[in-house]
Amino acid sequence: MIDSLLNLALGLLASAISAGLGWLAPTLRRRRRIGRVREFFGMPDGTECLLVVNRHTAVTSSKSVSRNDVYALMELAALVKECGARADVVGHDQVRQGLGGKAEFCLGGPESNERTAAHLRNWLPGVSFVAEPGQHYAGTITAGDETFRHDSTDGAALAYVLLARVHAGAGSRPVFLIAGQTATSNHAAVRYLTARHRQLARGHGRDGAFALVLKVVNPEAYGPDVVELASDVTAKAFATADPAGGAG
C-alpha cells in the first residue's frame, strides 16, 4: 500500500515537473525573443519612443494624414506595445529635440516630413529625393550613382522607399527613417522592418546603421504586401556623414 502511494506521489510530482518545464520553455523563448526585439529597436520595457507623423502630400492641411500612413502608424504602435514601451505621436513640424534620447520612427519622405528632410541632410547626405514636376508622389530617390524612379506604367507599377537606421552615437537610441515615394510604400517598409528585423540584425548588427532601398511591386494591385530589397545603399548613404552636425 505504501509503495503504491509512493509511486502515485512520484508520478504526480513527475507530471507537475513536466508541466512546469512545458510552460517554462516557451516562456523563456518568448522573453528572449522580446529581448532581441527591444534591443534592435531601442525600446526597453517602460521607455518612451517617438512616432513622427508626416502630412498628406495631396492636401494643404498640415494635420491631414494619408490613410495608408495611418495604417503604417498603427502597425508601429503595435510593435511599441509589444516591447512594453510608450508611443509619443508627434507631428513632423512639432518635434524640437535631438537624436538618441528616445527610439524614433520617422514616417514619410522629405516633402511631407520636415524631420525626415533634416535627418537626410545631417545623417544620410549620400541620399536625395529629386522632385518630379507635376507628380503627386515624393521625388526620385538617388543614392550615389543609383537612381530609383517611381513607375506608374500600367501593368508594371513600382514604388520605392528608403528604410534606414541611424545612431547619433555610442549608447544612443536608434532612429528609423521610413521615407517612401508613396504612402503605400511607407506602409510596405514598416511591414518589411517588423517582419525582418532578425535578418537585419544579423546583417547589420543589433545596433548598426544601415540604409536600404526597397521596391514595392504593383502597389495599386497588391498594396504594401509585395516588397523586396532593391539595393543596400548603406555605404553610399553615409559616405560623407558628419554626425556632429546632427546630434542634439
UniProtKB/TrEMBL annotation:
Q: What is this protein called?
A: Secreted protein
What transmembrane ranges does the database entry give? 6-28
Out of the domains of life, which is the source?
Bacteria
Q: Which organism is it from?
A: Kitasatospora sp. CMC57
Task: Keywords in alphabetical order, please.
Answer: Membrane, Transmembrane, Transmembrane helix
